[in-house]
Amino acid sequence: MAKNSSSDAQADALHKLRHSLAHVLAQAALKLWPGTKITIGPPIDYGCYYDFLFESPISEDDFPALEKEMKKIIHQAQTFRRDELSASNAKKFWKDRQQPFKVELIEDIVKNERVKTVTQYANIGPTGEETFVDLCRGGHVENLKEIPVDAFKIMSVAGAYWRGDEKREQLTRIYVAAFPTKVELEQYLKNREEAAKYDHRVLGREMHLFVLSEIVGPGLPMLAPRGAIIRQELENWIREELKRRGYSFAYTPNIGRADLYKKSGHLDFFRENIFPLLEADDSQYVLKPMNCPHHMEVYKSEPHSYRDLPVRIAEFGTVYRYEKSGQVGGLTRVRGFTQDDAHILMRPDQMQQEIEGILDLSFHIYRTLGFNDFTLRLSLHDPAKRKQYVGSEENWRMAEETLRKALGAMKLSYVEGVGEAAFYGPKIDLIVRDAFSREWQLGTIPQVDYNMPARFHLHYIDEHGEKKQPIMMHRAIFGSFERFIGVLIEHCKGLFPLWLAPVQIAILPVADVHEHAAHDLEARLKKEGIRVVFLDHAESLGKRIREGEQQRIPYLIVLGDREVRERTVTVRNVKTKKQVVVPVEEFVSTIMRDIRERKLEASIGIST
Amino acid sequence: MAKNSSSDAQADALHKLRHSLAHVLAQAALKLWPGTKITIGPPIDYGCYYDFLFESPISEDDFPALEKEMKKIIHQAQTFRRDELSASNAKKFWKDRQQPFKVELIEDIVKNERVKTVTQYANIGPTGEETFVDLCRGGHVENLKEIPVDAFKIMSVAGAYWRGDEKREQLTRIYVAAFPTKVELEQYLKNREEAAKYDHRVLGREMHLFVLSEIVGPGLPMLAPRGAIIRQELENWIREELKRRGYSFAYTPNIGRADLYKKSGHLDFFRENIFPLLEADDSQYVLKPMNCPHHMEVYKSEPHSYRDLPVRIAEFGTVYRYEKSGQVGGLTRVRGFTQDDAHILMRPDQMQQEIEGILDLSFHIYRTLGFNDFTLRLSLHDPAKRKQYVGSEENWRMAEETLRKALGAMKLSYVEGVGEAAFYGPKIDLIVRDAFSREWQLGTIPQVDYNMPARFHLHYIDEHGEKKQPIMMHRAIFGSFERFIGVLIEHCKGLFPLWLAPVQIAILPVADVHEHAAHDLEARLKKEGIRVVFLDHAESLGKRIREGEQQRIPYLIVLGDREVRERTVTVRNVKTKKQVVVPVEEFVSTIMRDIRERKLEASIGIST
Q1: pLDDT at A31 over 60
Q2: A260 contacts in chain B (CB < 8 Å)
């Protein structure tokens, strides 16, 4: 069911609060530093920001004064007044105030939206005077006093280019966290502090999961042997699931001729994310940003009857996106990554079933890994702006209705976003919340596409022997393996479930005399395919236990006199820090079962 | 043991025969077409070729005359005379004869080898006259009459650039097949004709294994769903073997900064095989031609103790080589391919064991797939040309001795090739002979490398706490998955062993009434992970059997009244064309075992 309920209203109220607070931030900044040039300041998922061009640099030291000024403005209980100005009056208004960025914005609005007027909002002080004006479309609180002064906090400053263009002015961005209540702000700050401790870049280094190398290049992380194990386990798992669910696979190259991407439209619509082209054989090659064009060619290589559909072509396809080199880092902001990509070609009557299949697979994958807090967002087209979209209105309605039906059949709550669809089709996004309440949009599940099958002239032969164009959906569950692993490292604080842990068991013989038995156990476990390390008695037991904990090995097995005599093992569960004694056979069969069943939580050492 | 025996002498005699025949070919061509410019003509694995610049084009129609002239020359029982000329005299000799390519060759020999004289051979006719002269280092038969006139055949003409450089003259290459006896020539011609029937490009299309797309680009084949199954099975198998043998894995990007390849030396020594560089961020990127530089960075990212070695880093790494676009085709001559690559970093005392491990794995892999005819070639350095090689003479001797020891310990015959080593280390090549007696060098097993660890300053800490440089070996068993699959398709004539077959079983119910039982069997097999197709009774049984045969599905299962009643299946083995009736349970358990054990030959339907 669509959420038209209280949670939507709450989201709307929070949006207004944060947007209004951005006005307050800009007003305060102008008050403290009058020569400042203002630009834009949108709400974000934990508050808002505003980009300024200051006359002299500001720093964290200025935060208390700025916060104080913001609170003062809020206490004045200012209200908002909406003004509609002709473009020329608005331009004059901002020119007079020496705000060149606002003038530029007005020129762009007039040009792009073909309008003759613009809207701006003035803050009105307690005595009716205009205290601040900003160019915006509205969505404010009625009165600034609605903003709780103890529920926001200036977080940080950062550099940002005007319009994200590195050739333009470098601005200063001020981030503010803002929530409806003080308790929520405090929870957010606590989560943030906690999350910083488990930054995947730090854990990745400590656990030897991946390698960033200056000489290889920015945004091109490599998975080291221990990180590669995690990816292989994820790959094996989803490959198994996909085979069971009737997917087939393809292998396609990482490059393709520029003509391929002209045909697909990527060179026109996605150019800024594509690496500079490579000139070879009097031709141009593209380092592939997406796998779809190659999969279209695979589909086309064989004739298809209506009985062969759906055709589900999956690939773990490595793609490259030309992110700015200064903006990449770790596993989550990269230039090269591998998608668990798939393209489904189907008949219209198969669509609902396919959508449900994708949703079902997504929930299965995410829940198995301990992500249980989701938001679903259904991105729809805006019928008022028909010309922005390819494909007939009838097809759009059908696709959107089918997406709704599938969500309904699965009894899922979701939010609708009119006008949020891509030009080529509607989609469902799944947003997961991690252990620190941060939101991540990982996969696309699914994205309908009317554009690509038409551009590639795909067809199938229907039951009457006629050519029909199949419907296509893109979908990726993990999204990018690299990014997903980065998020997962933080979400589980480096303590992976047993089946995913790069090293699953450490064996610690207490002394010399226990090494023989320890090696027997090691051999036994290795034969079963368990990933074991042997920590010999060169170091003290305490030190070895600390080492095992630091490496976040799920189980540390201690073998001493009693264990050898009684054919037991002392198992230390590194996550719970609990220690239990279990018979060897029970230990082996339990971990084998937990691995086979991909259990999220360990079965041994939950309680002593 | 090294083959210093009869087979070596035979190979040498055959080499002399073929090399001499190339002289005969050139002499005959000059006789028939006097203005022809001659270049070079080396022996090849089935005969020899010679590259000419003809004044007017020649074709297959000219073969009879050319062959006749060659036989005439052989019948004249000409002998060879060796002449040593000063470079200037030699140049004058060829200038006078208007043979500019020979003049260019002499200039290069003088420049590259820093010599002042060159050797050439004159053919001497029955009356002592000079009949033909060629610039060469020798290795001829004593008398041309040793060449059997009924054991050679002109095969084809093809275009070839002078020195393989597309900016230079386009020449005409004439290929000649030549063997010691008529019987061997006939066998070769028969094999060749047979092999052409099973060309992997034809079978690949018929069986929907891979896709070549003009718009994706030349030499960039894509594996379609059925071909992808073969690659996945090969990947799963070798991954399992590698894990058992203590390999770890890495995932590295397909690009790297040019600095990385300057450091590795590839940009200096391998430039012509690298795609044009890609300019990004005021930097240059290389589409990776090899995985080694990335693996060096992975090794370096952690400290290593002597106890951690050997470190074996494997990756299914996709690499790109800039082959000429006109020279690529199918799966065997490509620009983009995926290697089952690995790099082993080890202590000197671990080398023999590692070499034996690689050889053992290689033989296991090749034999399982039905390749049983091997030649091993040990490529050694030439101590007389020490300056050509990096690394100390002591290290070279040690490495070569260790390679010999490993071959000896495994009781393997091999041929030694002095001067055949790469500049960075000695290696063993494994040459396999396929079902049509064609030789393929697929993998490298192994290649010692003294260069890369030094360039990347790799080290480990030895037992005395001192930094030591590890020895490194490259190795790839399949070599390239694409090329290997191409060779395998032809070797097994499209009839893959059950475990590798894209579709393993086709189920053919005789009529309507058998469909229910047939679907039950289908579901049963699918649940076990067997790849099944259902060929319903819309077509006649005969037609469906022919379809199954054409798709080269190993087993066709017929279900009729008797089978349903008796709980049996009629199994048609498509390879043997034999048909047997077996109980359902026996059929299922037998195919499950054959798949699990990766049996080369089917167990059912060997005899009726």
Answers
A1: yes
A2: 215-217
**DSSP alpha helix (H) spans, A42-129:** 63-75, 87-96, 100-113
Task: Give the H/E segment covering residue B268.
Answer: helix B266-269
Amino acid symbol at B269: F
Domain with CATH 3.30.930.10 in chain B: 200-491
Specify the pairing of strand A555-559 against strand A505-509: parallel
pLDDT of residue B7: 66
Longest dimension (CA), chain A: 92
d(CA A510, CA A569): 12
Q: How many CA atoms lie within 13 A of A345 on its CB side?
A: 31
Per residue in B146-165, pLDDT tens? Answer: 999 999 999 999 888 898 88
Name the one residue in this structure whose structure tokens are 């090995």.
Answer: A553
Distance between terminal CA atoms of chain A?
44
Question: Residue B14, SS3?
Answer: helix
User: What pLDDT, on the 0 to 100 scale, is given for residue B327?
Assistant: 81
Tell me where in chain B the CATH 3.30.980.10 domain(s) lie.
Answer: 7-196
ipTM rounded to 2 decimals: 0.84
Model pLDDT, residue B62: 95
Query: A216 and B256 in contact by Cβ < 8 A?
Result: yes
Numbers of helices and strands, H then E, in chain A: 18, 28
Give CA separation, B356 vs A403, A527, B350, B353, B444, in Å: 58, 22, 10, 5, 13
Q: Name chain A contacts of B535, Cβ cutoff 8 Å.
A: none
Query: Which structure tokens are listed for B337?
Result: 């391919």
Q: Which of residues 206-235 of A touch B (CB under 8 A)?
A: 208, 211, 213, 215-218, 220, 222-225, 227-229, 231-232
User: Any long-range contacts for A29-32 (C-beta under 8 Å, 24+ apart)?
Assistant: A29/A54, A29/A66, A29/A174, A30/A132, A31/A69, A31/A73, A32/A62, A32/A65, A32/A66, A32/A69
| Closest to A251 (Cα-Cα) out of A344, A318, A321, A334 | A318
A599 is an active site residue? no
Phi-psi region of A512 (alpha: psi -120 to 50; beta: other; left: phi over 0): alpha
**CB atoms closer than 10 angstroms to residue B305:** 11
User: Rounded mean pLDDT of chain B?
Assistant: 92
Tell me which of 3.30.300.30, 3.30.930.10, 3.40.630.10, 3.30.1390.10 is the CATH number of domain B200-491.
3.30.930.10
**Contact yes or no for A302 and B255 at CB 8 A:** no
CATH 3.40.50.800 region(s) of chain A?
Answer: 505-596
Annotated catalytic residue, options A321, A483, A544, A575: A321
User: What's the predicted TM-score (pTM) here?
Assistant: 0.84
For residue B344, what are its two tokens?
Answer: 């082993």
Angstrom CA distances, A43 to A12, A19, A33, A178, stand at 11, 5, 23, 9
Closest CB to A222: pick one of B248, B252, B325.
B252
Radius of gyration from C-alpha coordinates of chain B: 28
Q: What angle do CA A248, A377, A20 make, to 5 degrees?
A: 145
Q: Provide the pLDDT confidence category of residue A7 given band limits of 50, 70 and 90.
A: low
For A194-204, what is each residue's pLDDT tens digit? 888 899 999 99
Sign of CA dihedral B413, B418, B422, B423: positive
Please state which architecture CATH assigns to domain A7-196.
Answer: 2-Layer Sandwich (3.30)
Q: Which tokens go with A232?
A: 């292989």
Percent of chain A with pLDDT over 90: 74
Of A251, A277, A205, nearest in space to B303 by CA: A205
Residue B491 CB: number of other CB atoms within 10 A? 22
Q: What residues in B contact A297, CB-CB < 8 Å?
A: 211, 213, 215-216, 222
Residues of B in contact with A285 (CB under 8 A): 217, 275
User: What CATH fold (topology level) applies to the domain A505-596?
Assistant: Rossmann fold (3.40.50)
